[in-house]
Specification:
single chain; 295 residues; alpha+beta; eight-stranded antiparallel β-sheet; two-stranded antiparallel ribbon; 8 helices
């Protein structure tokens, strides 16, 4: 992904999205959409114990590095399944785990293809902090192409999101990748140890500062496996990393480190948005999950 993608946003659209989110209102056009009602849901609070795990840093010696991502395909748990820290090289690490009793891998694949087609679809996921989203016209065509398996439609797509991860509104470009291009060993890609995946690499800048601010790189991994309790969602972020010649590599300037408040803010945001996801996705999939359309 070219970091210049962050320059492609429309300034009027950005300001409109920020104003609507600050006021927690919908436009007249948005109110007419059949999924507008989800914007007015009461947002569930995260489990206090789960949220508390993100209060202070975990032990960096127990963190998973992106070079070892295939450890996520091993049976059992890793040392840190929920927590965050700075790694010794200055990068940021985040892990989060959720169990979904009413969500399937098919729902996950549908959601990541369906929601980037309209601002409101992203906003209703987590209204307090999700302001907007878009994809290019070419990528929209791919997301709507019924000849492509749902699981593959998001591969190669860049989401241009506007959101607040507890450090102010940001413009975020996420270039989604196939699990193979992300670096997973596909000879081990078998149920129940893995059911599906959504992830890629991205950049973020403070909203409205795409031409001025240093761009923050990251790798994002959402990987899902089946358990007796339901679908297990294991998230990993590696902030400060990008792929260089197909391999994950820290691209932080020498001597610099990701601020702790940035890592912690994203970790806490992740807990909150996927707490909402747990009950929200089954409901919206039941109503709209038969197909993907733009309205």
């Amino acid at each position: 992904m070219d970091s210049n993608d962050l320059h492609n946003g429309n300034d009027d659209h950005l300001q409109y999205a920020l104003e609507r989110t600050a006021k927690q209102i919908l436009s007249e056009d948005e109110k007419e959409r059949p999924y507008a009602k989800y914007f007015f849901d009461k947002i569930p609070q995260p489990d206090p114990h789960h949220y508390q795990l993100m209060d202070t840093p975990c032990d960096p010696a127990q963190a998973l590095y992106p070079e070892d991502m295939n450890d996520l395909l091993n049976p059992g748990d890793l040392a840190i399944e929920t927590g965050w820290c700075n790694l010794p090289n200055g990068t940021g690490f985040i892990a989060n785990r959720n169990i979904y009793s009413d969500i399937t891998a098919e729902m996950i694949d549908w959601w990541f293809a369906w929601h980037p087609l309209d601002d409101l679809r992203y906003r209703i996921w987590y209204p307090p902090q999700h302001a907007g989203i878009s994809v290019s016209p070419e990528h929209q065509i791919k997301l709507l192409d019924s000849s492509i398996p749902m699981q593959e439609r998001n591969w190669g797509i860049t989401h241009h999101a506007i959101e607040d991860t507890n450090n102010g509104m940001e413009q975020v470009d996420i270039h989604f990748m196939s699990p193979q291009s992300f670096g997973f060993d596909m000879t081990r890609w078998k149920s129940p140890d893995v059911e599906t995946f959504a992830g890629g690499q991205g950049w973020s800048v403070p909203a409205g500062q795409a031409d001025k601010a240093r761009k923050s790189p990251s790798l994002m991994c959402h990987i899902f496996r089946q358990t007796d309790s339901g679908l297990e969602h294991r998230t990993r972020f590696w902030i400060g990393y990008h792929f260089v010649d197909g391999k994950p590599k820290s691209i932080l300037p020498p001597g610099q480190a990701i601020p702790e408040k940035v890592i912690k803010g994203l970790a806490q945001h992740n807990v909150c948005e996927f707490t909402r996801f747990k009950t929200f996705l089954p409901r919206i999939y039941k109503e709209f999950g038969e197909k993907i359309i733009t309205t």
